[in-house]
Structures are given as structure tokens and as C-alpha cells.
Amino acid sequence: MKVPQLEKKPELKSCHNVNWEDNYSWIHQKNILEVLKDGSKLLPEVRKYLEEENEYAKFHLKDTSKVQKKLFNEIKGRIKLDDETIPFKDTKYYYWTKTTKEGNYSIKLRKKIGTDEIEEVWNGNKEKEKLNTEYFGVGDLEVSWNDKYLGYSLDLKGSEYYSIYLRDINTNKLLTETIKDTSGSITFSLDDKFLFYSKLDKFHRPRQIFRHRIGSSLENDELIFEEKSDAFTVGISLSSDKKYFFIKTSDHNTSEEYFFDVNEENPKPKLIKERNKGVIYSVNSWDGYFYNHTNENAEDFKIDKCKDLLKQDWEPYIPAKQEVLIGGLTFLKNWILRSEVNNALAKIFVKNLKTNIEEEINFTNEVVIDPGISLKEENRDSNNIFLSYSSPKTQGRVYDYNLETKSKKLIKEQEIPSGHVPENYIVERFECPSHDGEMVPITILRHKNTKVDGTANLLLYGYGSYGASMSPGFSSSRLSLVDRDIIWVTAHIRGGMERGMKWWKEGKLLNKKNTFEDYIAVGKYLIKNNYTSEGKIIGMGGSAGGLLMGAVVNQSPSLFLGVIMAVPFVDSLTTNLDHSLPLTVGEFDEFGNAMDNKDHFDYIFSYAPYNNIKKMDYPHILITTSLSDNRVLFDEPAKFTAKLRDFKTDNNLLLLKTEMDAGHGGKSGRDGAIEEIAFDYSFVLKITDKI
């Protein structure tokens, strides 16, 4: 089949007296935000190219069509399709959700306390059918405090422009006009007279909080807060004691909060602490105290408390610990729960407010786990909560846990209909030295029969940005590779927060290359220790993890047999220089500001994947993207693919697949998600000769 060719239209770019040529810059449309909302506005020649690439990928993976179906059925076979969540006891109702064999979307149910009659509040399958849309993204789904109203937000393109709808649950009638172009979040007032929402500006940034009176015209909506900085985005939430609303405005690195009483007729948000670059804080209230979770003078966070937000007489509550990430608080009448992360492992602690004694909760004998807690009921005068955990080899388990007696009862275990035996798998946690001596945590999942003699293929997953930590939880889909003797490894590289704020700081801005060096060091360590061999690794990462993939494949292509790049941030210099794009300005503290800072420009230029493609052999590469993705525009991977075709000197596969009706998260619905995983995995099986 003929290799797709994107027309070259050379453009000379210049910044800080540096000139470079970009043959494919023309595919970025000035009206890109309109294109995200309406795909018909895409340039015909660009659409033609994307469709040609889709056909090219389909052609070269046609021999995987049977294995794709097999993988799809395999992965779906591990999911209990007709499942239900554990009911949450509210004040008047139990609320829970369920899924069905036939449907792709969740159904929200409720049952009045003391009765057996089950009521359907929301049915995503029926809503999608009614709207007759290919893509169906649900943002928020909230029942009002009087249990009469349902607020929900929908994105029908994947572009994350959410429309909010408000419905009377009993009559099923809409109560107000559709509120368009929002972030999707919905917050009801306690008296159910109002709802609060955040409005997107022309650059797709939520910078305004409005209050809407239910049943009135949108023209009368009140603007109660507006953020002036292009870099900050806003949201609103209710305190744990339901006494205050908190408005948080922040970028990735700095935050500022305002509050107002829930009973204020005309809300006038009051500032808590003025923003201070690099300081993140989040305030909550409970039982007469305000609690501040902050990194001010505490790199890895601490928690202070005070009685009066006007006086700000803060006193220590949870002190900072070096390279131990202090999490937020969950409140009950007699208990306060919190989390810590140390060396990529999370722990949960509970404090008895009667005795003032704090203890760690024991979940299991397994060391590498992903633990969690959640409230069992709205009533906080309770000694019972839900404990949950999973591990790379153990499916999710939920316990009814009594905080006083420390007794726990298993009430739900993730069912794997096709069968799963955790003992058939081995989980390992190691550390390996990076280029500068820092020790990088590694989580390994392999089948017990997979030989550690260098013969196995290995999938090495990484992300390493925004302080996002990769939790070692269970994934039933991964078993389709692990069962075929492909070792799954997660590299907890710098740029995340697995080792506290320091781990993040050392993987961003002018330290960003540490992220790439850590990943390469992990790959070499795994080769040295016979988990795999050079040229047998499959690299995998998405979004900012796609930036990682693009950088390491340019730097060390011989490590890899293949690379999968999902919605990859590969034209990072071009995007950083365009301040009109939704995310750019808010990410200056993550990647730098190339336009206004020459050091940042030079540094980004030195690793940006698109700018550093070389004349050399590359491994097999699969790139996936979506037309309506507003986080990483489709033109980044399209340009990267076109340029890579010009430069690569090998005959290995280079495939670009674009979802024409999806966004950053890919296809909507359960089956859509499984189809994408099966597609990616079929590529892995093809290049490893395991079809």
C-alpha cells in the first residue's frame, strides 16, 4: 500500500535568534478551537491525510483482525458486565450505580430507606440513544440535596466543552435552559435554589464561577467570581461540614482560595491567603476548625488548623515529613483519616479523636498495593467506613471496616468471570540508579512461568509529569499481555510525586530531561538483570507520557522493539510558543515559557520530539490521537508522523490512527475503551510475533 504523504509547505520559524524550518506547520488551523467543536471545519486536505493514515494503519494491521477480536473478548470476559456498586446511604435514599451486559454506560439507581422499591434516576444508554450521537461523554452527575433534581453534564464531541442539564427526577422534565461551554462540574446549594458552575472562556479555560437560580433564565445568572490570570483555572466545592463553599483558583504550581457561608444570600467570596508562587494550599472545615493542606514551608505538605479564617491563627496539626507526601483529610465525628505516600507506596492512617491516638490501617500482607477509603453513609456519626485495595496481581476488594473494633468484612470483590488466580503472578518492587545516582522505583508484574533469562519481551510504561504518581493498582486488561509472557513494568520516574515534591521538581522545567534519563535507566537496568534484552522492550505512554516516548525514542531507539504513543505531546515547542491554546499558559511552571525565556526555549528545543527527529533507524511505532482532543491537538502527532516518515531509515512500522469522533480520553463507552486497548495490544503481539 502507498505510504501516506502530507504535503510539505516549508515555513521558517524564528525565536530568540534561532531559526528552524517546519514543513508541516500549516496543518494547524487558526480556528482550531472551532474545529474541536465542529469537525466539518477541518481543512479537507488534512482530513484526507488523516483518513489515508487510518487506512494505512488498517492495512498493515489487517493480519491482527482476528487477534483484535480475541483480545476484545478476552478483556471483556474479565469484566462483570451486569455489576452494581455498593450503595451509599444518604439521608433519605440509598444511591448506587449499575452496568448491564447490553449497555455501555452506567445507570444510577436509588431506593428510599426502609423500602424495597428501586428507582432509576439516570440511564446513560437511553440518554445516548435519545441524542443519537457517536461520542457520549458524561462529566458530572449530581442529585440535589432535596433529592428532587438531577444535574448532569455532557460532552458530545470529546472536546470537553460540557453542557449542563437540570432535570426534575419525578417528572423527567428539564427545569432550565441548557448551560453551554462549561467545565462540566455541578455544585448545588443546600437549599436547592441554586447551582454553581464554572464557565469556559474563549480559550477553553474555566475562569468564572456563576450562580444559576433553578428555573430562571440564564440571562439572570450571577457572576460571583472571576479569575483575571490566563494561567489559573477555577472550581467550587462544598466543605465537609457543609458550612462553607470554597472557590479554588490555581495553576499546577500555585493556588489561591476564597470562601463564603452557605447561607449568604448574595455571595461575596473572601480571600483566605493571597497567592504566593510555588505555594499550593487547600482549606476545608470540620467541627469548628479550618484545616489547611499546604506545602508552604513544607515541601511535601503539612496540615495546619485554626478556629477563625479572618484571624488566621494557624497551628500545626500534621507536620511535614521529608520525601513523604502528606495527603488530605477525611472527617467523621470521632475519627480523622488521612493518607501518606512514601517511595511510591501509599498508606492510610486513622486518628481516634477521643484518645488522640493515630494508627496505620492494615489492608493486607501484600506490600505493593493501591489502598483507598470512602464513606459508607452521609451520617458522619459512624464508626464504619469502606476500605478498598488492589495490587498489580490482586483484583479490587472492598471491606466494611469498623474503626473502633478494627474488624473488617469483605463485602465486594472485583469479579473476573473468565477466572483469575493471583498466585499465578509475581509482583516485584525494585529501585535502580539513574544517570545522576537517584534511585528510581520500579513495579514489575509477570507471570510465574515467564523466564527471567533475557528472552521475554517487556512493556515499559511511563508518564512522569504534573506531579502525577502511577499507583500500583490492578488492571485486568494487562493480563492479556502478561499471560503471553510479556512482562509489564511501571517506571516511577521523576516528574511524578512518588517520592514527594522533590521528585516532581526534579522532573520539570530545566530538569525535565531527568524524566527521560530515568526511563532509559530503568530500561537498561531491566536488560542488565535479564528481565529482557535490548531491542525487546515496548515503550508505552500517553499525553505527557507521549512526550516521554517521543524523547526517549529519539535518544535511545535501539532499546526498543516498538513504541506506543497515545495522544502524544510531541510538538511541545510549537505548542509552548502558542499562548492562545487552552493549556499552554497554565503549564509554564511545568515546562517553561519558551517565548519569554531563552533558557527555557533552548532547553525545550533540545528535547522536543518533533524538533529532534534524526536520520536513523527507529523501532516499530504506533501513534494514536483524536480529532476533538483539546489537550493535545491532533496536529501534533500528525506532524510528528509525517516528519518521521521523511527521516527514518528503517522499514519498521510507523502507524498513525486518528479517532474522528473522540477526544483526549479516546472513544466513549465501555466497548469503545476495550476496542482501543485491544488495538494497541494487537500491535504489541504483532511485533513480538505472538499472533
Q: How are the secondary structure elements laid out?
A:
Elements: E1 11-15, E2 18-22, H1 32-37, H2 44-60, H3 65-77, E3 88-89, E4 93-98, E5 107-112, E6 118-123, H4 124-131, E7 137-143, E8 149-155, E9 162-168, E10 179-182, E11 187-188, E12 194-200, E13 206-213, E14 222-226, E15 233-238, E16 244-250, E17 255-261, E18 270-273, E19 281-286, E20 289-294, E21 302-306, E22 315-318, E23 324-331, E24 335-342, E25 345-352, E26 357-360, E27 370-375, E28 384-390, E29 397-402, E30 408-413, E31 425-433, E32 439-447, E33 457-461, H5 479-482, E34 486-491, H6 501-505, H7 513-528, E35 537-542, H8 544-555, E36 560-566, H9 572-577, H10 588-591, H11 598-607, E37 620-626, H12 635-647, E38 654-659, H13 670-687
Parallel strand pairs: 33-34, 33-35, 35-36, 36-37, 37-38
Antiparallel strand pairs: 1-2, 3-4, 4-5, 5-6, 7-8, 8-9, 9-10, 11-12, 12-13, 13-14, 15-16, 16-17, 17-18, 19-20, 20-21, 21-22, 23-24, 24-25, 25-26, 27-28, 28-29, 29-30, 31-32, 32-34
Descriptive notes:
There is one protein chain. By secondary structure, this protein is α+β, with helices and mostly antiparallel strands. It has an eight-stranded mixed β-sheet, sandwiched between helices. The protein has a four-stranded antiparallel β-sheet with strand order 3-4-5-6. The protein has a four-stranded antiparallel β-sheet with strand order 7-8-9-10, with no helix packed on it. The protein is globular, with a radius of gyration of 25 Å. The two termini are 22 Å apart. The mean pLDDT is 97.
Spatial order of strands in the largest sheet: 31-32-34-33-35-36-37-38
The stretches of 5 or more residues where confidence is low (pLDDT under 50) are: none
How many DSSP-defined strands? 38
Question: Architecture of the domain at 419-687 in CATH?
Answer: 3-Layer(aba) Sandwich
CATH superfamily grouping of the domain at 419-687: Alpha/Beta hydrolase fold, catalytic domain
Helix/strand-derived class? alpha+beta
For the largest beta-sheet, the strand count, sense and barrel status come to: 8 strands, mixed
